[in-house]
Amino acid sequence: MCAARRKSRAYHPDRVRDALLAQVEHVRLAAHALTPEQLARPAALPGRDVHALLAHIAGQIDAVPRLLAQPAPAATRPALDLDDWAAHPGAGVGDAPEAAGDPVEAIDAAAEELDAVLETAVREDLLLPHRFGPMRGLDFTVTRVVELVVHSDDLTRSLQSPVRLDRGALAIAVRVLADALAAKAPGNSTELRVPPFVAVQCLPGPRHTRGTPPSVVEADPITWLRLATGRATWAQTTATGRLKASGERALGLAGQLPVLG
User: Fold this and answer.
1) Can you name the CATH fold of 13-165?
2) 228 and 177 in contact (C-beta within 8 Å)?
3) Total-model pTM
């Protein structure tokens, strides 16, 4: 799947490690503060309550040690990069089974297992046997940052009280999803801006080389996360002013959302 295309963004292993550990800790602390009534509350995700959402989060954290414990793939190079992962239908959903039993205890256990293996997981020369194809350990760990940030925001929406987002983790998630959009709709006619973290060009059309591009779409990081993952729609976010779009080609981005498969 890694055909010739634009150069992938590089993520520093230390920053990925620190961001994932920080976001896991924020989720863990939030989970411990929940009451039985809050655990039974319907989640912002259809068909789930907060208990089930936490069980899903525990499974996503545990996916790193789980894949590391499996036999290494026979391949010598990755078949899957971050853009490929984001584009796959069901990306993230099947990376690990939901934890059984008490989800708060499961998150604690998964966090402990993750901490023990994370230095290995962020290696760039290590291949993991992902279900979509061999994937670099560092890249798969980046996907866990994306999952943790997105689901932390799901908890915020479910509980109507904020779950803290690590700034480094939020920056990684925003950039991965913006790059996935640029890979899905390549071109230079429209610029997506998510200050202060990223700006990418996408959609075919006239190329601009200096100054303000003819079409611009701008959103804050949380709005972009929700748009890119299908948690919010173009119409909702433009109506509230959280998404600003200008130029004749800007509306073309609406048809490319969400970007996470």
Assistant:
1) Four Helix Bundle (Hemerythrin (Met), subunit A) (1.20.120)
2) yes
3) 0.93
